[in-house]
Amino acid sequence: MEERRTVADWLCLVVRALVYAVVGGAALIAVATVVSVLGPMLVLDLYTPPVAAWWTVFTAIVVQGVPFLLLGTVVSAAIGAFVPERVFSRLLPSNPVLAVPVAGAAGVVLPGCECASVPVAGSLMRRGVAPAAALAFLLSAPAINPVVLVATSIAFPGRPTMVLGRLVASLATAVVMGWLWARFGRDEWLRLPKRHTPASSGLRAFGAGLQHDFLHAGGFLVLGAAAAATFNLVVPRSVLDVFTGSAWLSVLLLAALAVVLCVCSEADAFVAASLSGFSPTARLAFMVVGPMVDLKLIALQAGTFGRAFAVRFTSVTWAVAVTSSVLTGWWLL
Hints:
Layout: H1 2-46, H2 49-82, H3 85-91, H4 96-106, H5 114-126, H6 131-144, H7 146-155, H8 160-184, H9 203-234, H10 237-241, H11 247-261, H12 268-274, H13 280-289, H14 295-305, H15 307-332
């Protein structure tokens, strides 16, 4: 009886495999035929100058972001696999109010952009760091690290006040946002990243964490890059020129432009320097807002910490960054 069932099971399996092979093969042949006939014509019709411009912007953003995203995921995986939790409890004060400025100042040691800061901040939270301190680090790391400050000094030669203004405004924004989260943030707004590796440490845990974080964050990087490229294609340059005559409107425009352009923090100073028609304060706002709030960063935060967090945190961060830029520009520039 068991032998008959086994034979019957094998026959069913063979018949099912044949059906799948025939149906799947026919579908594959049909798709290949359609693609071979219509593909060249479709490519020629779609590859217009606007589409080429969209693809150029999209590729540039992804190529800029991926190396630093990889850097961030390597640091994140290394923290999760090799750094004991007691290290953070010793380095950071137990009081979140005091831990926030320490974590904000620690952002100076990571030469990366916003793509790298999100997975690192998530790893810090998984290791027991207070969310307020980790978020302060998330905002400061891409804005005040040595690579960014050197790039700013090169983009604005002979203007050390622009470098100092960027440092002061960015650090102030990070610290204020950390304190605001410590005071008003709620646990239900923040989806704390879960451990994706076993409790054990070592190379196996490092590899698993690196694979998960890079693939997870990379998808949202691509989504943000596509949105930024679409904006560049849709909004004409003439619309931007309307706002250059007003000091206040120019600040708001460049602060909004920084969100959608998604320029890497290591390169945004050169973009800001090229916007010579805008005031120094407006260009400062562009450099302060960009590393903290842009489309790809919003997508990365939503994927890592949840949409409820991303909506609240990024909107408040944008307002604080603009205010900090205006006050710093009025003081220094």
